[in-house]
Amino acid sequence: METPYLAVDVDVMDRNLRAMASAAQERGLALRPHAKTHKCLEIARRQIELGAAGLTVATVSEAEVFADGGFDDLFIAYPIWPSPGRAERLRRLAGQVALRVGIDSVESAEALATAVGPLDVLVEVDSGHHRSGVRPADAAALIEAASKAGHSVRGIFTFPGHSYAPGAPEQAALDEARAMVDAGPHAEVRSGGSTPTARLAGTGPVNEIRPGVYVLNDAQQIELGTCDWADVALTVHATVVSRSGNRAIVDAGSKVLGADRLAWATGFGRLPEFPGARIVAQSEHHATIEFGDEAPPARGDILRVAPNHVCNTVNLADDLIVFSGGEPVDRWRVAARGANT
Known about the structure:
eight-stranded parallel beta sheet, nine-stranded mixed beta sheet, globular, alpha/beta
């Protein structure tokens, strides 16, 4: 196989899937994993077979891909604004699957009711990430307005995205629980849970979790301490094409690895076999790796790279090459690649 390509160790991935499913079941939490990480029908089927209540998606087009793939319980965890075309697509989806959508304003609730009709909705609450979502204290008023507009309000949801910083997951999980209580703990569905906080979510305030990255893991999760190297199921296989001193260049740049690098990240990705190495720079088709005191691998050597943010990396690929026991065994299409509308 020509490099660069995305390789999934299916044995590691299946272990990750079973571990999260068991952790949720043991605490009485519904697991509704976020499919925007893998965008792949084969992985989603495994999640449902292990007891997932349904899937979370980020866009209407992702919902369409998974609905066409046979999945019948979908939550679009996003404050959708119904343009005319999107409204028609939502109507079709609502007639095809059990569909829930997110709202975070009276205006969006009323616009959806007018353009689409009554829907099952969840009110988004800001639990500290300060992206979308209403203040917990304002959730009751939005629930009332959405009900008045004709929607069936199934509950509330949040994304504790401020868990993505060193030392932050524990506080983010506490913030998430507090927001659920302040917003109305008697809601039928109280949905939260990023990958860094999923295993910290206790029963009570939260009764559903929506982690996504856990299935494959990435360099960010390594540096957050959420997982170990043995839990990283997806790596980019790349060839050393140039080297100088303690540096090597591989043929996987930002168009393969993605460009994400949070301020605290130590590089643009990590190498499982070279834990001291760092990707210090990227171009579109080059990644510059510094090996410190170690001698860089030889030209022509193939290296495994764990990207910083696996969701972006998968969205850049057409296929995932599936390995088991070190041998390629299958090829899975990234069915929802580019499904951004």
